[in-house]
Amino acid sequence: MLDIKIEKTTNPKPIPGPEDPLVFGTIFTDHMYVMEYCPEKGWHDPAIMPYQPISLAPSAMVFHYGQEMFEGLKAYKTEDGRILLFRPDKNAERANNSNRRLMIPEIDPEDFINAVKTIVEVDQAWIPTKPGTSLYVRPFVIATDPFLGVRPSNTYKFIIILSPVGAYYPEGLNPVKIWIEDKYVRAVRGGIGEAKTGGNYVASLAAQIKAHDEGYSQVLWLDGVERKYIEEVGAMNIFFKINGTVVTPVLNGSILPGVTRDTCIALCKEWGLPVEERRVSVEELEAAAKDGSLEEVWGTGTAAVISPVGHLRYEDDVFQIGDGGIGQISQKLYDTVTGIQLGKVEDKYGWTVEV
Ligand code: COI
């Protein structure tokens, strides 16, 4: 494992207090982690330094062809003062799956996890403790060769920044309204849908703005081939409870394999609920919503945690789910997942890692 050089800031910023609003992704801590890659040395010289702008050539390849990968995980402080990360091994693994698809050199998972632990330890005073808050950890890699031709870059930077956050959606745990998109698609078979990379998110913006203008929080994507099967929401995976069975779209290469998705599947199975990972068509959903068998809908994501869905809209049809409030399973998942993350609920699976 590589040694990380640490240079602490001499000019610390004020840390938000419990009364300050933590609007998601707007506040950054005092430090950042940076590691460089070049073909001669591989990944080398990891360092933690004061949070600061980075200097790149305008020709840096990330600006032109979007060769970049990012991750997201969270750190929590328990009531007895321990610092916990939730399943960082899954992020390290997914980072390398994305790296391989994007022709970015893989990062040793031990270095990835050690980097996250070390930067979180350095900025631990920034971990908020109010219910519903956490320290969001954003690792990312960018291609830095100054070059305008299309090929993989030879040089990269792996950076980690930290942001104290509250709920991702302003609605908090109140159900969000979701727009099932019938014109644009997010990802296609054989594309980069299962990699965590900026290109998938920029592809979502036009539909997201359209949905926002209509009063919807997020877009639910249909498959890019037949535009018939449900894939995922802009910042979450999606789950349905249909006739007592928990159903989520099967990972098909164009859906992001969410860590919270995996966590929810394991918990639902543990609770004895039938769980099906399979294709779900929009027609099936419409029919289930009409005959009352669509009992609950929720999204899962690191940023969003568990986000109940109260309304779905597809073309001219609008469906209210249940009574429009949070469902029983969504509430139980939220309480259990956040309980494990905060060290309040027994961690039977060894998902939490102490810093
Ligand atoms: C996360 O849930 O961590 C994500 O990366 C989603 C992002 C769009 C906020």
Tally the helices: what do you get? 8
Helix/strand-derived class? alpha+beta
| Order of secondary-structure elements | EEEHEEEHHEEEHHEEEEHEHEEEHE
> Which parts are unreliable, with pLDDT below 50 for 5 consecutive residues or more?
none
Enumerate the distinct ligands.
2-OXO-4-methylpentanoic acid
State the share of residues found in helices, binned by percent: 10-25%
- End-to-end span in angstroms? 16 Å
The profile of the biggest β sheet is:
9 strands, mixed
Strand proportion, as a percent range, falls in 25-35%
Radius of gyration: 21 Å
Number of strands: 18
* Shape field: globular
GO molecular function, one term: branched-chain-amino-acid transaminase activity
Catalytic activity: L-isoleucine + 2-oxoglutarate = (S)-3-methyl-2-oxopentanoate + L-glutamate; L-valine + 2-oxoglutarate = 3-methyl-2-oxobutanoate + L-glutamate; L-leucine + 2-oxoglutarate = 4-methyl-2-oxopentanoate + L-glutamate
Protein name: Branched-chain-amino-acid aminotransferase
Modified residues (N6-(pyridoxal phosphate)lysine): 196
Give a brief outline of the structure.
Helix content is 23%, strand content 30%.
